[in-house]
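Try this one yourself first.
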C-alpha cells in the first residue's frame, strides 16, 4: 500500500557539498508536512559507463517502490542512464511517480540546470576579462553528451569573437584529476601555453592550475583557468577559480513543489530549467571571492582532522573483522565504527546476505549475481541485544510500517542507505540515521560502508580459505570412504601423543577389527556394496569407542583404534558386535556385515611399541576370524 509520507531520493556522493545542501533543503521542506525522506546512495560517480556498473548500485534494488509516494532520481549525480532507467522501470511496476533531477527522460517530470547556458556564461566571461587569442578547452569524456555540449558551446562563443576553432584547442580530462593532469602536462611539454584553459568541471580546473603553477606559469597572468559546477573546493585553492555555481536550494524548492503537485494528482511531464550562477574569481583576474558559506573553511578543517582519526580506526576494525574466528566476533567489531566523539551510539543497522557464510561454495565466484531478498537477514545496531539478530529483512528494516521507520520518522532526519560490497559484489546494505546534517557524518557513510565491505568480504574470504585448508588437511590425513584416520594421519596424531609425557603410565588399548567375507560381498554384490560394508564396520568402531580414540583404516578392510586410559574392552567389543547386528536387522541387504575383533592392552610409556601392540591384537582377531569365515552369507 502506498505511503504518502515517504519520499525516496536516489543519488550519489551525499557528502558532495551540492548534494548535501540539496538534501538538507529538501528534507527541511518535506518534514514540515510530515514527510519522511529515505536516501539510497552510491559513493562514487559512474561517469556514464553503462558497461561497467559497480556492485554498489544494488542499493537501488531495495528501494521500497510499492510504498513510496514518489521517487526522486538525481540523474547527473548517478551518471548512468542504465541505472536510472532500472530505477524508473522498477517504479513503473508499482505505478510510483518519478521525478528526474538534473536529467530528462521521456514522459517524466524533470528539474534541471541549464548547463549549456551556464557554461556559455563562463566562456563569454573570459572575453570580458581579456583579449583572448589562444583559447583551449579541457573537455570531459569523449562522446559524453555533457562534454560534447560544452565543446560545441566553446566553439560557438569563440567563433562569435572571431576565433576559428582548431582540433589543437581540445584536450580531454575525463572529468577527473589524473587525466586532466596528464593532458595539461602535454600542453606544457608542447611549449604552446594557451592564454585560457576552459575546463568542463571544477575538479579538472583545480588540477590544471596545479600543473601550471608547478611549471612556473602565472595564473591568470600567463594563462586564465575556469571551472564549472561551483564546488566549495574552488574557493580555497590558490588562486581561487572562476566557476558557475549550480546552486541546489532553488532546485530543492522546485522538487518539493513538484512532489506536492504529484500528490495532489496533478501528474505531468513538466520541465523546469534553472540557470547556474556565474562566479568570477582570481583565476580570470576577477576580484577574490570566498564563496557563500563563511564557515566553509572550518568545515573542511573538521572533515580533515576527523578523517585522520577515522583512517586509523577503520584500518584497525577492518583487520580485526578479517581475523575474526566466527561471525559473532566479526560483527561485534562493527560497534567501534558507529560511536561518535561523545561515545553515543549512532542508530545504524546492517543487513547482510546470509549466503556469505556458506562455505560449500565460493561466494565471490559469480560477481554479477544480485542479492535475493530471501537471502537477507538483519544485523541490528549495538543498542539491540543480542548484537547479532537473524530475521527476515522484509519484516524489519525495509518495511515502512515497522516500528524502526516510525521511530526515525519522528526525529525528522533522512534515513541513508548504502551498499556493503567487496570485490564488486554486494554483501548487504547499511542504513544510517543521523540526528542532523553534519557533512562530516555524511562523509563517513562512504568510509564506513567501505570498511564494512573490506572487513566482511575479507572475513568471508579468510573463512573460505580456512574451510578449504581444513578440507585439504582432512583429505591428506583422513580416509575418504570411512572418515577414519589414514596411516599418515594416524602417524602424525600418534606422534603428538607419544611426545606428551604427562600421558605416560596409563593403560593403552588397541582394538583391531577386520571385516569378514569382503571378497564374497564384492564378488556377489559388487564393489560398491563392499565399500558400504567397510564404511559400516568403520562406523561401528568409531561410535563404540570413546570420543578421543584414534580410529584408523589400516588398509583394505582392516581397522583399528588406539584408546588411552582405563577401558572396559569387552564392552567395547560387544557394543561393536551389537551395532553390526542392529544394522543387519534393518539394512535389507542380502549379506551380513560382521567383523572379527581382537584387542591388546599395555602400559603407555616411552617403550610402548604400536607395531607390537597391533600384532598382538591382530593375532587375537585372527583366531576369531577362523570362526567367522563363512558367516557373511545369507
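Now uncover the answer:
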Amino acid at each position: 500500500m502506498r505511503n504518502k509520507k515517504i519520499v525516496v531520493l536516489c543519488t550519489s556522493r551525499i557528502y558532495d557539498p551540492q548534494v548535501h545542501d540539496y538534501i538538507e533543503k529538501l528534507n527541511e521542506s518535506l518534514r514540515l508536512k510530515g514527510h519522511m525522506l529515505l536516501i539510497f546512495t552510491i559513493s562514487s560517480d559512474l561517469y556514464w559507463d553503462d558497461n561497467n556498473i559497480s556492485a554498489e548500485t544494488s542499493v537501488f534494488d531495495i528501494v521500497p517502490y510499492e510504498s513510496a509516494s514518489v521517487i526522486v532520481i538525481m540523474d547527473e549525480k548517478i551518471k548512468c542512464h542504465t541505472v536510472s532507467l532500472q530505477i524508473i522501470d522498477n517504479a513503473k511496476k508499482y505505478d510510483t511517480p518519478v521525478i528526474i533531477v538534473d536529467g530528462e527522460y521521456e514522459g517524466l517530470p524533470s528539474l534541471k540546470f541549464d548547463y549549456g547556458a551556464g557554461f556559455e556564461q563562463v566562456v563569454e566571461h573570459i572575453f570580458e576579462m581579456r583579449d583572448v587569442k589562444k583559447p583551449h578547452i579541457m573537455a570531459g569524456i569523449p562522446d559524453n553528451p555533457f562534454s560534447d555540449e560544452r565543446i560545441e558551446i566553446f566553439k560557438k562563443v569563440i567563433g562569435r569573437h572571431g576565433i576559428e576553432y582548431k582540433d589543437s584547442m581540445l584536450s580531454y580530462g575525463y572529468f577527473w584529476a589524473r587525466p586532466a593532469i596528464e593532458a595539461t602536462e602535454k600542453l606544457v611539454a608542447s611549449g604552446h601555453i594557451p592564454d585560457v584553459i576552459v575546463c568542463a568541471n571544477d575538479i579538472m580546473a583545480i588540477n590544471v592550475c596545479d600543473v601550471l603553477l608547478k611549471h612556473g606559469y602565472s595564473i591568470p597572468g600567463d594563462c586564465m583557468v575556469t571551472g564549472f559546477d561551483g564546488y566549495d573546493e574552488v574557493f580555497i585553492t590558490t588562486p581561487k577559480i572562476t566557476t558557475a555555481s549550480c546552486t541546489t536550494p532553488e532546485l530543492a524548492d522546485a522538487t518539493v513543489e513538484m512532489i506536492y503537485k504529484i500528490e495532489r494528482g496533478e501528474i505531468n511531464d513538466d520541465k523546469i530549467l534553472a540557470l547556474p550562477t556565474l562566479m568570477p574569481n582570481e583565476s580570470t583576474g576577477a576580484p577574490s571571492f570566498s564563496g557563500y558559506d563563511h564557515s566553509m573553511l572550518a568545515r573542511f578543517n573538521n572533515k580533515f582532522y576527523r578523517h585522520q582519526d577515522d583512517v586509523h580506526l577503520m584500518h584497525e576494525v577492518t583487520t580485526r573483522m578479517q581475523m575474526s574466528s566466527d561471525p559473532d566476533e566479526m560483527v561485534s567489531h562493527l560497534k567501534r565504527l558507529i560511536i561518535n566523539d561523545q561515545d553515543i551510539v549512532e542508530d545504524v543497522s546492517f543487513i547482510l546476505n546470509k549466503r556469505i557464510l556458506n562455505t560449500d561454495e565460493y561466494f565471490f565466484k559469480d560477481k554479477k549475481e544480485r542479492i535475493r531478498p530471501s537471502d537477507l537477514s538483519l544485523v541490528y545496531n549495538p543498542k539491540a541485544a543480542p548484537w547479532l539478530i537473524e530475521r527476515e529483512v522484509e519484516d524489519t528494516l525495509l518495511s515502512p510500517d515497522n516500528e524502526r521507520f516510525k521511530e526515525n520518522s519522528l526525529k525528522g532526519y533522512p534515513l541513508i542507505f548504502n551498499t556493503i560490497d567487496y570485490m564488486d559484489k554486494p554483501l548487504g546494505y547499511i542504513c544510517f540515521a543521523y540526528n542532523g546534517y553534519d557533512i562530516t557524518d555524511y562523509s563517513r557513510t562512504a568510509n564506513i560502508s567501505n570498511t564494512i565491505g573490506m572487513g566482511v568480504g575479507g572475513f568471508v574470504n579468510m573463512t573460505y580459505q580456512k574451510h578449504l585448508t581444513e578440507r585439504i588437511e582432512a583429505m591428506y590425513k583422513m580416509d575418504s570412504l570411512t572418515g577414519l584416520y589414514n596411516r599418515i594421519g594416524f602417524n602424525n596424531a600418534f606422534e603428538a601423543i607419544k611426545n606428551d609425557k604427562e600421558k605416560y603410565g596409563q593403560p593403552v588399548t588397541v582394538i583391531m577389527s577386520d571385516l569378514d567375507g569382503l571378497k564374497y560381498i564384492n564378488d556377489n554384490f559388487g564393489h560398491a556394496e563392499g565399500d558400504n560394508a567397510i564404511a559400516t564396520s568403520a562406523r561401528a568402531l568409531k561410535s563404540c569407542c570413546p570420543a578421543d580414540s584414534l580410529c584408523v583404516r589400516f588398509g583394505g578392510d582392516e581397522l583399528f583404534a588406539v584408546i588411552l586410559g582405563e577401558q572396559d574392552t569387552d564392552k567395547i567389543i560387544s557394543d561393536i558386535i551389537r551395532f553390526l547386528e542392529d544394522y543387519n536387522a534393518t539394512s535389507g541387504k542380502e549379506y551380513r556385515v560382521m567383523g572379527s575383533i581382537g584387542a591388546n592392552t599395555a602400559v603407555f610409556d616411552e617403550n610402548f611399541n604400536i607395531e607390537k601392540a597391533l600384532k598382538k591384537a591382530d593375532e587375537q582377531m585372527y583366531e576369531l576370524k577362523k570362526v567367522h569365515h563363512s558367516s557373511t552369507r545369507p
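Discussion: The CA atoms of residues 188 and 215 lie 8 Å apart. The chain has 17 helices and 20 strands.
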